[in-house]
């Protein structure tokens, strides 16, 4: 392997040897593509210095996205810089393609505040009514499960019938975002949302792909004139509902595990 890799060659090598092994490979591919289009891509890695990275940061923050018509968000640029930093670390340690990591000492854009968008009761009713009438019956079940279990979109789409015990009301997730496995309690509404699909002994519960669900969600929000609501925001409703249910009664739950256990009776 040449010690005089260009950043483009380094990025392609990283894609084929490192990135492809990650669970988030699809999302990371978009960031790699953005870096490959940058002016830095044609330069040798050992020649790139911190001021070059700072210029890349500033140029990206001023750039307008063709898809949204808005400037690139600080969160996006932070993720790209973190990825670029790891590319330089791997190139320095494993490939000998550079002597230092020029990203290390460059300030990243300030992290944006966490989302606090809440699903309003009226919005929830309209969304459930829309999904119930949707020609694809899976959409209603997906939304109900998101509200009732706080499972992530990726976890829902990977659900398999052989990992669901409707009698015990538990869905087993063999692999989650953090790499561990866990069991998810199913409320009565969650169980009913699954049974309405027609219970099977094996295979995927949902046929939706990630892009397909995103498209259906986007079209629904446009038709209902609901603004700035992400599918992921539905998880917050479970958390709030869980706390409210668990804090009622003579024996309030003492921790998150007990709150989730109490939700199984809901």
Can you give me a brief rundown of this structure?
The protein is mainly alpha-helical and 266 residues long.
Properties at a glance:
mainly alpha; 3-stranded antiparallel β-sheet; 266 residues; 11 helices; single chain; 3 strands; disordered C terminus; 49% helix; hpI Integrase, Chain A; 2 domains
Structure write-up:
The protein is mostly helical. The protein has two domains: 89 residues; 143 residues, Orthogonal Bundle (hpI Integrase, Chain A). The protein is 49% helix and 4% strand. The chain is built from eleven helices and three strands, in the order H-H-H-H-H-H-H-E-E-E-H-H-H-H. A three-stranded antiparallel sheet has the order 1-2-3. A hairpin with a 4-residue loop joins strand 1 and strand 2. The radius of gyration is 23 Å and the shape is elongated. It starts with 6 loop residues before the first helix and ends with a helix.
């Amino acid at each position: 392997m040449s010690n005089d890799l260009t950043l483009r060659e380094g990025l392609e090598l990283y894609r084929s040897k490192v990135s492809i092994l990650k669970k988030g490979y699809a999302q990371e591919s978009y960031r790699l593509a953005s870096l490959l289009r940058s002016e830095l891509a044609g330069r040798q890695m050992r020649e790139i210095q911190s001021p070059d990275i700072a210029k890349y940061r500033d140029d990206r923050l001023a750039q307008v996205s063709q898809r949204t018509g808005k400037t690139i968000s600080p969160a996006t640029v932070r993720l790209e810089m973190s990825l670029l930093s790891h590319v330089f670390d791997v190139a320095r340690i494993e490939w000998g393609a550079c002597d230092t990591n020029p990203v290390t000492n460059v300030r990243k854009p300030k992290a944006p505040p966490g989302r606090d968008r809440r699903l309003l009761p009226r919005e929830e009713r309209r969304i459930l009514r829309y999904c119930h009438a949707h020609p694809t019956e899976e959409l209603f079940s997906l939304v109900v499960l998101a509200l009732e279990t706080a499972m992530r979109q990726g976890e829902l789409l990977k659900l398999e019938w052989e990992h669901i015990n409707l009698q015990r009301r538990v869905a087993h997730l063999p692999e989650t975002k953090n790499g561990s496995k866990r069991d998810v309690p199913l409320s009565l509404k969650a169980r009913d949302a699954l049974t309405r699909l027609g219970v099977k002994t094996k295979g995927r519960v949902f046929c939706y792909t990630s892009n397909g669900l995103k498209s259906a969600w986007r079209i629904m929000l446009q038709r209902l004139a609901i603004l700035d609501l992400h599918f992921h925001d539905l998880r917050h409703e479970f958390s709030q509902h869980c706390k409210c249910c668990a804090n009622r009664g003579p024996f309030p739950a003492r921790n998150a595990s007990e709150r989730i256990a109490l939700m199984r009776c809901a």
